[in-house]
Amino acid sequence: MITNLQTLEKLGFEKWFQDHVDPERSAEFEIARVIVVHKDRYTITSGLDDVPAELVGKLLFSAASAVDYPAVGDWVLVKLYDGNTFAVIHEIIQRKSLLKRKTPGKKIEFQLIAANIDAAFIVQSLDHNFNLRRLERYLVMVNESNIRPVVLLSKSDLLTSDKIAGRIGQIHEIMPQLQVLPFSSNNESGLEHVKDLLKPGLTFCLLGSSGVGKTTLLNHLIGESVFKTKTVREKDSKGRHATTSRQLITLAGGAMVVDTPGMRELENFSVETGLDETFAEITALAGKCRFNDCSHTREQGCAVLAAVTEGTLSEKRYQNYMKMIRESIFNDMSYVEKRQKDKQFAKHCKTVMTHRKRQKTF
Ligand SMILES: Nc1nc2c(ncn2[C@@H]2O[C@H](COP(=O)(O)OP(=O)(O)OP(=O)(O)O)[C@@H](O)[C@H]2O)c(=O)[nH]1
Ligand SMILES: [Zn+2]
After folding, report:
1. Domain boundaries along the sequence of the chain
2. Any idea where the EngC GTPase domain is (predicted)?
C-alpha cells in the first residue's frame, strides 16, 4: 500500500485535507482512511487494501479525551509493516466534520460517531413518525457537526401526493432552504433523486428513528455495491478471528456511507452551537434584546417577544426554540441531576441561560 493520490481522492481525500498535512509528515507516512473502529482496533484503507491497524503509543498516552482517538471516516497518517498487512496509526489529520454525542454523566465527555461526513440524510417516514420537532433536533445536531443536512421522507407510498406536498410545505415553512426529498423503497419512487446526490468521493450518513426505513434504503443503495459481501477479518486481542462488518461502505457509484452501531442509537444528542444555526433568525433577534441575560419570556425590550407580537416570528417557531433550549440544558445534565432538578426546572433553565449569555458577553 503506497499512498496514491488518485486512489485517495476516490475515497474523499480532497485538497482541504492535503492542505492540512505537514509536507514533511506526509513524506514520512502513508495516508489512509479509517473504515472500522472496534474498541482499540481499527481497519484502514488506502483504497487498495484493507489493513488492520493500532494506535502508536505516543497517541495513546497523549490522548486526553475521546475526540483524540480515530473515528470511522478519519484520515490518518500511518506506517505499514509485515508486507503491508499491519499498520500503526501515528496521527489523525484535521477533521472537516465530526459527529459525536455526549455520554451520559456529569463530565463533558463525548463518544465519537463518525468523522468527515459531507452530508447527513435525516430520514423521517411519512406515517406517524413524521414530526417537525424531532426533525429540528436532528438538524441542530447535524448543523453543529458541520455537516450538510438533507431530509428524506420515506414510505411515500403510504400517502397521496397532495398530503406529501403538504408535509414538505410544513418543513419549508420553518426551514425554507432545506432540501427535502420524498421517496419509497417499496415502489422505488423518488429513489433516483436520492441516488443523484450520491456523488463519488462524498461521504454520507443515515440518521433517523428506528423503523423509518434506513436499512431498507441502505440495502437498495448497497444492492448495487461491489463491496456487498466484503467483511473485515482480523484477530482480536485474544487471537481469535473476529469478523467486523465494514462501517464505511463504498457504493458502486463511488459515494460512501457510514453505518456504525453508534449511528443507530443517536436519538439522544446534545445540542449547543447547532441551536444558533437552526434558529438563526431568533439568535439574531436575541442580540437586539435590551438585556444581555434576556430569557425571552417576559422582559421589557425583548426583541424576540416583540417579533412574535408583530407576527414576523411565528408563535410556534418561538415555542420550539424555547423548548429546544430547555431540552439542551436538560440533555447536558446527568440522569440523577435531571431527577433532582425536574421540579425546579424552569428556575434552573433561567440560571443556566443567564450564565451562558454572560460567557458570550465577556
Ligand atoms: N410502506 C413502506 N414500508 C417501508 C418502506 N421502507 C421500509 N419499510 C418498512 O418499514 C419497516 C422498518 O424498516 P427498516 O429499514 O428496518 O427501518 P430502520 O430505519 O432501518 O430501523 P432500525 O434498523 O431499527 O434503525 C420494515 O417493516 C420495512 O419493510 C417503504 O418505502 N414503504
Ligand atoms: Zn429577549
Report:
1. 5-94, 99-265, 279-361
2. 115-264
User: Which residues partner with 100 through β-bridges?
Assistant: 112
Determine whether the annotation assigns residue 352 to a binding site: no
Distance 288 CA to ligand 2 centre (A): 8
CATH architecture, domain 99-265: 3-Layer(aba) Sandwich (3.40)
Q: Cell for 240?
A: 481469535
Q: Which residues pair with 41 in a beta bridge?
A: 38
Ligand 2 center to 247 CA (angstroms): 44
* ipTM for the complex shown: 0.95
Classify domain 279-361 at the CATH class level.
mainly alpha
pLDDT tens per residue, range 57-110: 998 888 888 899 999 999 999 999 998 899 999 999 999 999 987 665 556 677
* Cα distance between residue 6 and residue 138, in whole Å: 34
| Strand ordering across the sheet containing 148-154 | 179-182, 148-154, 119-125, 203-207, 256-258, 248-250
Strands 256-258 and 203-207: parallel
Domain 5-94 CATH superfamily? Nucleic acid-binding proteins (2.40.50.140)
Cα(305)–Cα(357) distance, integer angstroms = 17
Q: Strand, coil or helix: what is 233?
A: strand
Ligand with an atom nearest the CA of residue 129: 1
